[in-house]
Design brief:
Chain lengths: 411, 113
Amino acid sequence: MSNTSVIPHLFRTEYSKMCAVLYRSFGIEHFEIVEDLVSDAFLKASEVWKTKGVPENPVGWLYTVARNNARDHFRKSNLFKSTISDDLKRNTFEGEDFELDLSEKNIHDSQLAMIFVACHPCNTPETQIALALNLLCGFGANEIASAFLTNREVIYKRLQRGKTNLKNAQIEIKQPTLSEIEDRLPAVFLTLYLLYNEGYYSAAQDKSLRKDLCIEAMRLCLLLVENDLTNTSQTNALLSLMCFQSSRFDARVNENGEVILYGDQDDSLWDKELIGRGVYYLKQASGGPDFSKYYLEAAIACWHTIKEDSDQKWENILTLYNKLLIVEYSPMAALNRTYALAKARGNNIAITEAEKLNLKDHHLYHMLLGKLYEDSNQDIALKHYHQALELTKSSADQKQILKNIQRLKEV
Amino acid sequence: MKDFLFVFRSEKRTGPMPSPEEMQASMQKWMDWLGNIAAQNHLTSAGNALLPHGKVLQASGMVTDGPYTEIKETIGGYSIVKAESLDEAVSLANGCPIFAVGGNVEVREIVGM
């Protein structure tokens, strides 16, 4: 790695780990101190390495500086004696002679504890996602804002509010107990799922940023899989789903940033290794209750890794969508299920059911009906495509709809 | 939205056991039908299927083979849907696979809290 990219790289991989360990030692009231201490270690690195070169073991170097920073901070501050000394004694330090435990295991445990803090139910899901990105992935307000297509100020306020809520709730950063894990794991799954989707489906232009969101969601999910306490069948199902989706990440956008629909994708661009991982985690997940939403979505995604259409494929996808909708309704699942119904039972049956769906304000509803009517009634198909065009704000979808209209007019 | 119970009744099967293929086809029809309702966001619970045989306990302590051996119809299962009105709930029952085997769907409003 060249010296010019070493700090951004280390920042990405180490910042959140170092923070996690320190948050756990300092407690929830001192988010800002921790962020300053760790940022300061990176600042020092950039200054020292500039002249002396990058050391043999840059990670160890950063950890040592962060550890010294923390120690100095304690010595200088009477904070240590007054507010947090009891907490600290319990955790990592013994009085003045403290050692910051930066072992692999403690980093791992601290990150796990922080996942449960970031996903604490005292915050709304959207705040939880922002906190997860900030506290667990080291994303700044600017990056989060561009991923969410909003401005920095909104995200900054959201993060501040989220942190204040966590402080007010006086949450301890500790290894969650079994019953806490059981209670809170669904919220953690939802946050990671939304974080992943934010990256995968976001209309944000910056592809590498969107990919980063997906990678971070997968990294955190892997952390849960690697810990015995959180390695449940649903955790595996969620990770499996992310692997399958990610396998198509590069195939679904062309060099101009335009979305390529599943049917038009070049399947040689699908990442076979990720598909293999997806299958592995899906198998790990299959021991548990197989009606979980994530398991069903992963199983659907698994069938989509087979490009060729077959009766068996669509029959299975339809059944899985039926089960998914029974577990939890969502407009997207209803529309996708209707598409699977068309593939498995024919367009006419699907049209009858599609017209009963109460989704007429949704552009994807009209895109679906346009598609279903293309063979039998081009006038109705065109009418739906035009309605879809009026309803969508996404330029990628507009392009796709115009393409469909053009193709129909040429027939 | 209110919840409504669908009670599926049909005549007890007297013929031979259906073949695995017939069972599969019947299962798919039910799944599709429930999927149709769920896709409209009108399903509260897929409910359960019931085995045909059971027993009935009387106040006297007498246990009989039931339910109601003298009646040919039996309850095969139940689901719960949500709808604005009884009429809308009834319209959701359209297309239920029970009709193909001569059965019927009883639709009853569930008393809310």
